[in-house]
């Protein structure tokens, strides 16, 4: 399975753990060249330490905080130079917080929405000149199904992907004239370090594995389990590939049916 991605040059934010790491791994196995970033470059390098030398030549690692515009500009420039162009961008690194609906303040909503748009808009704006020169230009945004089905316990965290969805649709219309596909992968609960952090914060006495099972039951996920990062990687690769040539402004849900 290679999705006809051999030789494609992909930029992905947040490739050091979780969904981003699994997606980079999958893209490399498809023969793509990848540039990825994280805030902690040492940890990012450590996460890719065991790569074989041939594959390692197709992976470029950078330090970049997606919320710092100057760093994002530099990352896009350095990635394009390292790969001699950019064919696809995956907006993966993001951040949001927030508690339940009545207690969440307006400023918390604004902060989460602003951050989610910024994490997409800055990397998109800076990679756009390179994408316009590509034969197969694609933008894929990773966000949560909570934008479609809000979680009242995570009110502003649900508003943020909803805003991102609207932003993506507008962008897909605007970039259609450039043949740039702009699509989203909306994930449900995926077993990543982010969920381990939620488990720690919850103070639950359940083991992490039992807590994940209880989360799946609480959310009535039809598949009765949470997802794995590698189950998100394939849909991301598909949307980056020539196989998605007539798709834009749409979303693939990877959420076990929820
Ligand atoms: N896991 C889920 O269940 C779930 C559910 C809904 C939506 N999502 C979305 O899926 C995406 C990936 O989530 P994940 O769970 O795989 O995350 P994760 O395991 O926490 O990994 C996040 C990666 O992004 C990097 N990162 C975080 N903040 C960054 C920043 N400001 N600038 C640059 N890099 C940054 C991290 O490295 P550093 O810390 O070194 O920067 C790390 O490599 C996120 O957009 C998240 O909102 C996930």
Describe this entry's structure for a reader:
This is SDR family oxidoreductase. InterPro entries: NAD(P)-bd_dom_sf, SDR, SDR_fam. Belongs to the short-chain dehydrogenases/reductases (SDR) family. It comes from Salininema proteolyticum. By secondary structure, the protein is an alpha/beta fold. The protein folds into 2 domains: 9-188 and 229-250, Rossmann fold (3-Layer(aba) Sandwich); 191-226, no CATH class. Helix content is 45%, strand content 15%. It has helices at residues 18-29, 41-47, 53-56, 69-83, 106-131, 155-175, 193-202, 208-218, 230-240; strands spanning 9-13, 33-38, 59-63, 88-91, 138-144, 181-187, 251-254. A 7-stranded parallel beta sheet has the order 3-2-1-4-5-6-7, sandwiched between helices. The mean pLDDT is 96. The structure holds NADP nicotinamide-adenine-dinucleotide phosphate. NADP nicotinamide-adenine-dinucleotide phosphate is lined by residues 13-14, 16-20, 37-40, 43, 64-67, 92-95, 142-144, 187, 189-190, 192-195.
Note the topology:
Elements: E1 9-13, H1 18-29, E2 33-38, H2 41-47, H3 53-56, E3 59-63, H4 69-83, E4 88-91, H5 106-131, E5 138-144, H6 155-175, E6 181-187, H7 193-202, H8 208-218, H9 230-240, E7 251-254
Parallel strand pairs: 1-2, 1-4, 2-3, 4-5, 5-6, 6-7
NADP nicotinamide-adenine-dinucleotide phosphate is lined by residues 13-14, 16-20, 37-40, 43, 64-67, 92-95, 142-144, 187, 189-190, 192-195.
